[in-house]
Amino acid sequence: MAMLEVKDLHTSFFTPAGEVKAVNGISFDLDSGKVLGIVGESGSGKSVTAYSILQILSHPGRIISGSIKFKGKELVGAGEEELHKIRGNKISIIFQDPMTSLNPVYTIGNQLTEAILLHTDRNKEQANARAVEMLELVGINEPEKRLRQYPYELSGGMRQRVMIAMALACEPDILIADEPTTALDVTIQAQILELMQDLQKKLGMAIIMITHDLGVIASLCDEVIVMYAGSVCERGTADEIFYHPAHEYTKGLMRSIPSIDDDEHERLVPITGTPIDLLNMPSGCPFAPRCDRAMKVCLTGRAKEVRVGSDHLSACWMNVKDGAERGVIQTDDDGNITAIDLEGNLDGTAEGGKAQ
Amino acid sequence: MSNDLVEVKNLKEYFPISTGFLRTTPLKAVDDVSFTIGRGETLGLVGESGCGKSTVGRTILHLYKPTAGQVIFDGKLVGPDTIKEYRRRAQIVFQDPYSSLNPRLTVADIVGEPLDVNKLYKTRKERSERVLELLNTVGISSEQMTRYAHEFSGGQRQRIGIARALASRPEFIVCDEPVSALDVSIQAQVINMFEDLQSQFGLSYLFIAHDLSVVKHISNRIAVMYLGHIVEIAEANELYHHAVHPYTVSLLSAVPVPDPERARASQRIVLEGDVPSPLHMPSGCPFRTRCSRATGTCADSCPQLKEVAPGHMAACHNL
Questions:
Q1: Percent of chain B at pLDDT above 90?
Q2: pLDDT tier at B60 (50, 70, 90 boundaries)?
Q3: Which band of pLDDT confidence, cut at 50, 70 and 90, is reported for residue A334?
Q4: Residue A118's CB: how many other CB atoms inside 10 A?
Q5: Would the CB atoms of B214 and A254 count as touching at under 8 Å?
Q6: What CA dihedral angle connects A224, A229, A230 and A233, to 10 degrees?
Q7: Which of A353, B107, B244, B318 is most exposed, with the fewest beta carbons within 10 Å of its own?
């Protein structure tokens, strides 16, 4: 049994303009000690997925259906008291912006010991000692002095280190990192990524890394989920996703980022159009309006995830079509799938889709 | 006639910061920066936040009055006599497409404003034709021209900002982080558009960004800034393959590459510590407090740019 099991999660925001379906039936498992990357553009639902797991969605947002099981225990519909025991203790989160996620009127020490006092039976003195230990762990010098300082006295990189120290103070099983380096400069980003890698090895927690930066994903993650418009496009090991992308969206994403190694100046191939309006979701594949290989079937129905490699699933009609041509998947005349052989390996189709 | 369109000589921009009762300390945002930009060339300017790259862009345009130094545009010194003409021929595209467009104006008026200011039309008809043409150039359809900025997505707003910059038929555009706020898929659209416009109108760009992959993609030459100084400047491929300044080297190694195998194999040179405050600059070389190769000389004097290869300059005592 995986440590965290998310099944068919639907989260919506009920705005005056209508229901915004931010997360649209996503499922995934997370084993202990693994680093899972969730990558997607703004509005793809990656952060909302994280907030749903911890149930810290802000007002008009609500989990509609689905199940989130942590170590076999259902979190959807669990009481606040039960969630309190998990939040910041078993599962903790680092937010994107270290400037706004620390409380400006409390000292670092105050905020750092809060979680320790709440979740463990340490007394104030022991909690302070633990806080100093944590600050040392995340590479902050003069930790005793820092405990008495306020957030404004620290730089962005230091504040993010404090956030990480807070998140790890109770030795969580899962650390959710929501764009932890997006607001930071490249050299500081490198420091934080290095630190997270070290700590993951040292403490062995699982990490859910949420980011839009494929570079960050590549340097940290074992497994990757690619999201678009609240749904999973593609999932697999990092190597599979980067070297054999199967979904048209993932391929488009890879083509549209400039490569630092490109000396010949190849023109970028952008994904045309604009991101989807979550208020008016089409019935077909959400990416179809922007996909230049979209077929008729893409506009009418969503593709189920099919296996395109041993550790690699993709929800794209192109993969289904390829599979049908190879005889692994059968479709009737209208393109409806009559039998999906999920265990059937479509390896080779993925080869054809290798990113240039 | 020289082939350089823009020549920047010993540009300095100090901001007075109040540090007590009736006391100010100069914040040296840009300290003695010189470079040239050729016709039709893109010069990339990279550096971390607070290094002064945006200030360089704005000071070149005289949006801030330079503390010292000269900007020579098309062979003429930019000064009180030439500023009006310069303002027409040099334009800027800002980073944030959400705050840089006036929310009270329609798109047609946002794009038409530079035409009004520079009196670039004779009849109303001519004006609206020109606005339409500009919007077409950036891929905004004519039925959208009566809408307001908030009705557009980030990528579309950036296009409107570009159309506005193009309105006065400039030769030089400062692009101040124009794609940083955009999603990757939209970012590629806008980058391609910058390239198309450049070849169509023969524009020169100063392209300011912190994303090194983007800068390398779009630039002919790249300048690297640190704490108000240019520490290295070279042709784009040369800089990426033969960087010599320790700061450039660590900056390049810090870029996360979207390639798991290389990410596993790569040795990041992680810089210790943070950028010092520009109010309390270290003596001598600004980078010495984070440099692994710093020696006694580095604390004594600030290194000057010197040529290490044809067209490749770096400012480091250890070269």
A1: 71
A2: very high
A3: low
A4: 14
A5: no
A6: -40
A7: B318
CA of B210 to nearest chain A CA: how many angstroms apart? Answer: 8
Subunit contact B274:A188, Cβ cutoff 8 A: yes
- Token look-up 């600030």 returns B302
The vertex-A189 CA angle with B60 and B228, nearest 5°, equals 25
CA distance A190 to chain B (A): 5
The model's pTM: 0.87
The 3-state DSSP composition of chain A as helix, strand, coil percent (nearest 5) reads 35, 25, 40
Residue A62 dihedral angles phi and psi, to the nearest 5°: -155, 145
Beta-bridge partners for A28: A6
What letter would DSSP give residue A149?
Answer: S
What 3-state class would DSSP assign to A215? helix
Q: Does B42 touch chain A (CB under 8 A)?
A: no
Reported confidence tier of residue A181, pLDDT bands at 50, 70, 90: confident
Give the pLDDT confidence score for residue A281 in this predicted structure.
84
Note whether B243 contacts A: Cβ–Cβ < 8 A: no
Model pLDDT, residue A336: 56
Q: What are phi and psi of B57, to 5 degrees?
A: -55, -45
Q: Which of A188, A214, A267 faces B258 most closely, judged by CB atoms? A: A214
Please write the tens of the pLDDT for every residue from A259-273. 888 788 889 999 988
SS3 B206: strand
Distance CA B197, CA B187 (A): 15
Give Cβ neighbours of residue B297 (< 8 Å, ≥ 6 apart).
B284, B317
**Residue-level length of chain A:** 356
* A190–B270 CB contact, under 8 Å: yes
Q: What is the mean pLDDT of chain A?
A: 87
A349, HSE (Cβ side, Cα atoms, 13 Å): 28
Identify the residue among A152, A185, A227, A253 best suited for mutation to test binding to B, counting B beta carbons within 10 A and taking the highest. Answer: A185
Contacts of B200 (CB under 8 A, 6+ apart): none
Residue A332 is predicted with a pLDDT of 58
Q: Tokens representing B246?
A: 């320790």
| Nearest-neighbour CA in chain B from A194: distance (Å) | 8
The predicted-structure confidence for B255-281, as pLDDT tens digits, reads as follows: 888 888 888 887 777 787 778 888 888
CA B302/CA B103 separation, integer angstroms: 46
Whether the complex's predicted ipTM surpasses the cut of 0.85: no
Helices (H), B11-106: 53-60, 83-89
- Cα→Cα distances B21→A72, B24, B25, B179, Å: 63, 8, 12, 41
Choose among B185, B218, B252: nearest Cβ to A270: B185
Residues of B in contact with A238 (CB under 8 A): 260
Q: Tens digits of per-residue pLDDT, A3-19?
A: 999 999 999 999 998 89
Q: Identify which of B32, B90, B101 has the alpha carbon closest to the alpha carbon of residue B61.
A: B90
Whole-angstrom distance, CA of residue B18 vs CA of residue B15: 10
**Which structure tokens are listed for A214?**
């494929």
**Chain A residues with CB-CB distance to B260 below 8 A:** 218-219, 238-239, 242-243
Q: Determine the pLDDT at residue A59.
A: 86
* HEC string for A32-75: CCCEEEEECCCCCCHHHHHHHHHCCCCCCEEEEEEEEEECCEEC
For residues B23 and B221, the answer to whether their CB atoms sit within 8 Å is: no
Query: Tell me, what's the pLDDT at B41?
Result: 96
Name the residue facing B254 among A186, A267, A269 (closest C-beta): A186
Question: What percent of chain A clears pLDDT 70, i.e. is strictly above it?
Answer: 92
Q: First vs last Cα of chain B: how many Å apart?
A: 35
Structure token pair of residue B31? 């300290």
Q: How far apart are CA A63 and CA A41, in angstroms?
A: 21
**B250 to A155: CB separation less than 8 angstroms, yes or no:** no
